[in-house]
Every structure is written in C-alpha cells, then in structure tokens.
Amino acid sequence: MNDRTRKIAVIDGANADDVYRTLLDRWPADLRVAGVVAQDHGLADRACSAGYLRSLGSGELFPIFEDLGPGSVECHLEGAGALTAVEAVRRDIANGCDLVLLSKFGKLEANGAGLRDAFSAAMDAGIPVLTSVSPRFQEAWERFAPSMFVLLPPDPDRVEEWRRAASRSAA
C-alpha cells in the first residue's frame, strides 16, 4: 500500500481547521462526509480553547468543555460531549458515507476516550479518515494507528489528491 492509498490522512501542522473549512466548501454535495469538526466556544477570557464538536451530518453541537468562568487558568476540557458525538458519528457511518472527518486526535483520545471509538468505527468499516494530531500526542497516535496513516501538509489540494486515491482504493 503506498502513502496515497492509506486509509487515514493526518494533516501536519496547526492549520488543519482552515484546511477542513476549505475542503468542506469545495467538496461536491454528493460526497457523503461523516464526522465532527471543532468549533470555538466563543467565551472571552478563557485559558482553554476546548469548545464544541459540530456534526457534519446534522450540524448538532456537542460541548466538550465546562465553563469555569472568566479568568480561569485551568483547562476546562470535558469529555461527555465527545462520547455523544461518537454515537452520532457511528450512526452516520452506519447510514453510509464516503469519508470520515474527525477534527483531532488529542488529549481525550490519547487517554482512550474522546473520539477514539469513532476512529475505530471508521477504520473497522474501511472508510477513509481525515484528521489531525496534536503534537503532544503524536506518540499515542502512532501506537493507536501504527503505519496506517499518511502525513500530509496543510494543503487542500494535496488532501484532495489523497481523498480521491483513498476513495478509489476503497471501491
């Protein structure tokens, strides 16, 4: 299996959300994309950026934070919303999709929670997965998906090339 046909692509770098937005705007309406993307909580004066996961299927928002109030220096990441998001992604996968976009493999996933089961569901179904990995959790990611992924630059054209190749190999 060459890198272009690996079923999982990881966007390398801090611009993954920008790439996701570009691709979601660009992709044809008949491309069935399941998954969730990060959305800011919009709260001022917070130390932690954890906000929501937005379903690409329904638009539903799943909170992954606990509001600790203005000026809080603690991270307010809270995983219950991610578990609900996983169930929504699983339903979307079961209903049929061409690609699963999962915002990020981060702290929750490295600890065996968060979107980890959504990654597993997509992998088990043989559906291409697009994601990013927090640099702090690269080692945990490599234990979770060793040699199953290709690392791509934050370039929408390169990601689209991968998606087309991975889709052809899935057919």
Structural notes for this entry:
- With 171 residues, the chain is of the alpha/beta class.
- The chain is 36% helix and 20% strand.
- The protein contains six helices and seven strands.
- It has helices spanning 16-26, 80-94, 107-110, 116-125, 138-144, 156-170, and strands at 8-11, 33-39, 52-55, 61-63, 99-105, 129-133, 149-152.
- The protein has a seven-stranded mixed sheet with strand order 4-3-2-5-6-1-7, with helices on both faces.
- Helix 2 runs parallel beside helix 4.
- The protein is globular, with a radius of gyration of 16 Å.
Map the helices and strands.
Elements: E1 8-11, H1 16-26, E2 33-39, E3 52-55, E4 61-63, H2 80-94, E5 99-105, H3 107-110, H4 116-125, E6 129-133, H5 138-144, E7 149-152, H6 156-170
- The count of β-strands is 7
| Topology pattern, helix = H, strand = E | EHEEEHEHHEHEH
**Cα-to-Cα separation, first versus last residue:** 15 Å
Q: Stretches where pLDDT falls below 50 for ≥5 residues? A: none
Mean pLDDT score, rounded? 88
Major sheet: 7 strands, mixed
Global Rg: 16 Å
Global shape: globular
Major beta sheet, strand line-up = 4-3-2-5-6-1-7
Roughly what fraction of the amino acids lie in strands?
15-25%
- What count of helical segments does DSSP give? 6
Helix content: 25-40%
Structural class, from secondary structure content?
A: alpha/beta
Brief digest:
With 171 residues, the protein is an alpha/beta fold. It has helices at 16-26, 80-94, 107-110, 116-125, 138-144, 156-170, and strands at 8-11, 33-39, 52-55, 61-63, 99-105, 129-133, 149-152.
